[in-house]
Design brief:
- Two copies of one chain form a homodimer.
- Chain A has 16 helices and 17 strands.
- Chain A has 432 residues and is α/β, with parallel strands linked by helices.
- Chain A folds into two domains: 202 residues, Aldehyde Dehydrogenase, Chain A, domain 1, CATH 3.40.605.10; 143 residues, Aldehyde Dehydrogenase, Chain A, domain 2.
- In chain A, the strands form four sheets. In chain A, strands 10-9-11-8-7-12-13 form a seven-stranded parallel beta sheet, with helices on both faces. The first copy, chain A, has a four-stranded antiparallel beta sheet with strand order 16-2-1-17. In chain A, strands 5-4-3-6 form a four-stranded parallel beta sheet, with helices on both faces.
- In chain A, helix 6 links the parallel strand 3 and strand 4.
- Chain A is globular.
- At the A-B interface, helix 9, helix 10, helix 15, strand 13 and strand 16 of A face helix 9, helix 10, helix 15, strand 13 and strand 16 of B.
- Strand 16 of chain A pairs parallel with strand 13 of chain B.
Chain lengths: 432, 432
């Protein structure tokens, strides 16, 4: 199991089978996974107990321990997720363009799996099941590297998923578990066998992956999210959105890190906001204009570029909508940014010109999530612009191929005028 | 002009303007470009003459000289292309998903430009106009590096396009010309300012780019295309498709490099094919089984991985459809591959299991082209699987953002049950 090159090769071979599998078989595998996980629950919980005991000895922080724990509640959520995924339509084999090119020659663009995907994720064992099941549903195979704190749990979970796949006649090697950092380093070199790497982690980690691999990388990095309170904002709504965006869950990438406030409403808004933040124990930093209105600690340029992931907020007063947009495009991470305003023109300018995956009008940044968007689940949230952007679900795990069905057409005939391009849209599914 | 960092910065600033521009203005710019090129024809042709004289002194091969030449015929094609592009629908601002998430909160996925794109292309001056105009239509800005043989022509062309953009009120810096290899090396470092690099060239060149940049790369590399003649093929059709795929234009990436023939038809097919290839002066190489049937030179393993771009063809006799598919997935470049067969089941297996951007049934590989596919034009043909695959037109130059239009929705309300997800598909355009 530990020769990474062999594992990548096995994943590639399994990918050929998955690409040619039908959706009934892939859905049967998802249902078998739910059953296999339920049947293995004692083994899973026992393995998780070992991880938890070790993590407590290592003095892991309480929120991390909570994420690591895998008991009845998480199992129920995970198996419900698998059964819901089985109900979603097949993302592959979908015809997205159909066109007659010339008489008797039809072109179809048809979705297909990407192939072999390497995913590196944090210490949350339920993430393993989510990622592996999304991959199988979309006909891909995965090499999975989870957090080392969850290794015992991940081993049992991955084995259960592999067993379930085999029970319905699909290759167990659709999912393989990497166990060490050396495995990850070796995986990055397999650009002939692996089609895509999805790292979930810090900006520095994603950059390390990009710098050390020729394999395309879809980065899921920092979330430096902003709320901008416009001069035309409903200030009560702006307080509620700011508090929710900052405090509903501080440890996630779609939490707000910096609040921007238009100068015209700053003295009315900030004194309303401060007690609401203090009630949630938020440490507030501000620029000079903010400090002139409410008693807060000074914020520096470094704060604008910091993802706190904690009960800390930096506030800047801005002179205009343009300054707010410039600030976000300069310091933000392209994740999710919100304008609170009753002025539709201001909202439109913000939504058009802020260069982020999520641009929100009058709604908490915490809504940036694949389940919330109706995608079933997500492999991560992409902060780049290529391929998939924002919450990445099944569609992001597919590519497409052009299928041309002809009857002997030659380019020489097109060039000498024997045949002509018709370019008629067909609106039909590819028969092959 | 020569400080690359400043150029990239100017491109980024221009990209903000382009992203907020309307389609009427972008189309007006395309029409103005056609007029400006026609008005500048004497300057263009004179500059091209300087490039041609130098290229002749440098003993450039005849096909390359033909590609470099820019006279009345090319000008007419280029201006016709610009006017046709102005007629195509706007690729940006298109709503591709619309959904109510919870009462009063609507999500829209809306296409938008990628931003700043670096394109490195070969010595064909008309490519500069095609790439720059596709970028402008899709709201992007470009840094362009053409072949050094075309430098004088490219300077005049690029200046004409910049003048035309300014005349309709769009930033001239939507297109900027790089002139040296040092500029390219410097461009690869600007990952904060440039969103995508599109290199058109050899595999080795694309790998060099990938190894030296954090910027996402959409590679347009080798085309090692195959035709597979199945045991159930119409042999006359198979002769015509093989000859067209090999010889209609040998210097292009969609030309066939290796022919695979099923053993059952090899002795009937190869003696029919050979004279047709010889009539076109094709040098034929073959494996031992081929040599046993027709008098050809031996082909080695290296031949299977070679893009000749010339009047040379390697032939291999295979025992089965599976062997043909394995050969293509092992030695091919994922560009375009064709099966000639009257057996629909064999065709379906080939189209499903060959892992290439184009999978063809009974049609010449020469049809792999953005214009042929009805995309208007192409920036290149992507051989990777991420983002765009195959001929890459306007759609490949776009990404999307999620616009959420709310009325104060909070995640705390979703978690405490005050609100519920509705996830109703809306099928409407985003109003902002």
């Amino acid at each position: 199991m530990n020769d990474l090159h062999q594992m990548a090769h096995d994943a590639r071979v399994a990918a050929w089978t998955l690409a040619a599998s039908d959706i009934a078989q892939r859905n049967a595998a998802l249902l078998a996974m739910a059953e296999e996980l339920e049947a293995s629950k004692n083994d899973i919980f026992a393995a998780n107990q070992i991880d938890l005991v070790q993590a407590e000895q290592d003095q892991l922080a309480a929120p991390l321990l909570a994420r690591l724990k895998f008991a009845d509640e998480k199992l129920a959520a995970v198996t419900a997720g698998l059964r819901a995924l089985a109900d979603l339509p097949d993302p592959i084999g979908q015809t997205t363009i159909s066109r007659e090119l010339t008489e008797g020659l039809k072109m179809y663009r048809v979705t297909c799996p990407i192939g072999v995907i390497g995913v590196i994720f944090e210490s949350r064992p339920d993430a393993l099941v989510q990622i592996a099941s999304l991959a199988l549903k979309s006909g891909n195979t995965v090499l999975l590297k989870g957090g080392r704190e969850a290794l015992n749990t991940n081993r049992v979970l991955c084995q259960a998923l592999r067993t379930a796949a085999e029970k319905v006649g699909l290759p167990a090697d659709f999912a393989q578990l990497l166990e060490t950092r050396e495995d990850v380093a070796a995986m990055l070199k397999e650009d002939e066998l692996i089609d895509l790497i999805i790292p979930r982690g810090s900006n520095a980690f994603v950059r390390y992956i990009m710098d050390n691999s020729r394999i395309p990388v879809l980065g899921h990095a920092d979330g430096i999210c902003h709320v901008y309170v416009d001069k035309a904002a409903d200030l009560n709504m702006a307080v509620n959105i700011a508090v929710d965006s900052k405090t509903q869950n501080v440890a996630v990438c779609n939490a707000m890190e910096t609040l921007l406030v238009h100068r015209d409403v700053a003295s009315a808004y900030l004194p309303k906001l401060l007690p609401a933040l203090e009630a949630k124990n938020v440490k507030v930093l501000g620029d000079e204009a903010t400090q002139a209105i409410i008693p807060v600690l000074p914020a520096t340029d470094e704060d604008w570029a910091t993802e706190y992931l904690d009960y800390t907020l930096s506030i800047r007063v801005v002179d205009s909508l343009d300054t707010a947009i410039d600030h976000i495009n300069r310091y933000g991470s392209g994740h999710t940014d919100c304008i609170v305003s009753t002025d539709e023109a201001a909202a439109q300018a913000f939504l058009t010109r802020v260069d982020s995956a999520g641009v929100y009008h009058n709604v908490s940044t915490r809504f940036a999530d694949g389940f919330v968007y109706g995608f079933g689940a997500e492999v991560g949230i992409a902060t780049g612009k290529i391929h998939a952007r924002g919450p990445m679900g099944l569609e992001g795990l597919t590519t497409y191929k052009y299928k041309l069905l002809g009857s002997g057409q030659l380019m020489a005939e097109m060039k000498n005028g024997t045949r002509h391009y018709t370019h008629v849209l067909l609106n039909e599914d590819c028969p092959l």
